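Repro:
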Amino acid sequence: MTSDIGTFATPSARRSPVSVPVDWAAVEDWLGLRLPADYKRLADRYGPLDFGEYVWIHVPCVQRERFDYGQWLHATHREARIGARGLPEAERPVFHPEPGGLLAWGCTRDTDVLFWDTSASADPDQWTVVVQHCGAVPGSGLLRWHRYDLTLTDYLRHTVRDTWELPSPPGPLMGPLPGTFARTAFLPEVGAWTPPAPVSPRLTGAERRIALETGIGLDGLRLLSPPPERPYLGDGSWEGLFAELGTRLPGEYVRLMDEYGAGIWSGWLRFHTPLRTGERRFLTHVEDTVDAYRQLKDGDAAWYPLAVWPEPGGFLPFANSIDGDYLGWLTEGKDPDTWPLIVWPRHAHQGPPLGGGLIDTLLDWQRGTLVTRGFAALDEDDDPVEFAGFEPWDDRAYW
């Protein structure tokens, strides 16, 4: 077994590796696993690395707004679990913290993800590498989920191999890559990572049942996504907004906004600030959106079939997603409380209006029971309580 990457690769003088202190006892206690000795030596000596100008080796560290080791593991394992769902059940890997689950240690510039197979041995120094490749190459023998009979350091050594050299047993590998390693460029100021302390469940068992099953309306929504103490709506008034728009808005929307104000739901769905005056007010965002829709409609009316506000029955948006989807009403009739909700999806054909009201739609979506074009969906193994939430904005918010 090769013990150190310094025996087959050289550090870059341009971005010299920088070690970061790691409390391995705390990290391993948090993981519930001992980690391979070669990985711990690598982290202690070099810190987070860009290896071979292609592989990012992540170690327990943190940099504000850029990287958190624990959050990266959680998100990576979730995405991999979802990505493996298309495999036959017998071939579907499990992921940490499941017993024997794959444990991520790196990724590549082509979005491959590198794991250890913790089921390979009770001795972590014998864990072998599994790579979730972004795409198999026909005829190469490369599998979407490829297992290598190599430990981490031996796998890295073979990626910088001479072209004639193959691992034993033979199999497709990345590379050959340049035999260099450097400090990860997007992590120039990493610090020590502290495992998060255990936290009590946010909801009791009875509260979970209400939030996820029996609660209705605002009462159920408040449990899943507690409203802020001071909702931010802007410096204007509802009557001023209605006068500017030339119409009232649905009473359910007003009640929801009075309770929560402007902000983002589940880190994804952004509600415009309704009562801001001056720049970036509600009408500005509405006009920008409907103008864009109208231009697209002029190019392809079949793909963009909606009338746009202020045309009769036109689409009047009030929220959007971080992915570019829009939520709004079809302004059909004189009573805003009867206007149907509709989503303008960015990456799908236009669907029909939604069946429920705004609050019930939000509640169903946060429970994971609403599946419709243009709305992000939870995976079947996700806990809705973990993903539900509301982050309020203030007057600095763009939307």
